[in-house]
Amino acid sequence: MTCTGARLAAFFAMDSQLSVPRHVRRYPTQDASTSLKSITMPRPKTKTELLSVSADRYLQLNAMLRGLTPSQRTAEFPFDHRDRNVRDVVAHLLEWQLMMLRWYEIGMGGAKPVMPAEGYTWKTTPELNALIWAKYQQTSLESTCQKLGNSHDELLDIIDTHTNHQLFTKRFYSWTGTTSLGAYFTSALSSHYDWALTLIRRFTRAATHNVG
After folding, report:
1. Do residues 156 and 104 touch, judged by C-beta distance below 8 A?
2. pTM above the 0.85 mark?
3. Rounded average pLDDT over 1-7
4. Are 187 and 57 in contact (CB under 8 A)?
């Protein structure tokens, strides 16, 4: 299925053992002491920005997870949300990155990937996300974090093989529909990390308030 701009918009709207990937060191944007400060930035428009912001947001996520207490790692969110705990949030990030990797492999192989997944459309992503939630209910946070580190590195390695023109020219690859390959990578990486950081930060603030 070809992804139009409207369909892609739906995608955009969407443990201490978590290792810092090599790209954090390779494309540093700030030192670790300031990594948790929230910085509002526009969507990346170059390869360097995409690599740098993605690595930075991953570093922020890593630091936030390391800062959780043992009870917070498994606690249920004290507010209504599809994802009920931190593991669910990380699993959501992981599964969408794995889908991105599949789309890329199929698309670059000359075929048209089914997006977002077989049996689903961009309008039915809530149902797909519910399926993702159920898939990881028996998986530990530590295991999910480890897998996320692997998929993160793999995506950044792929980005590094492309030029700015290939990444940010709309319709450069037919399988990306009316948008650019870079837009997909941004959604699977930095934008999705921003979403996760906001949600986990909401949880930790609520947990602190409840304790107080």
Report:
1. no
2. no
3. 34
4. no
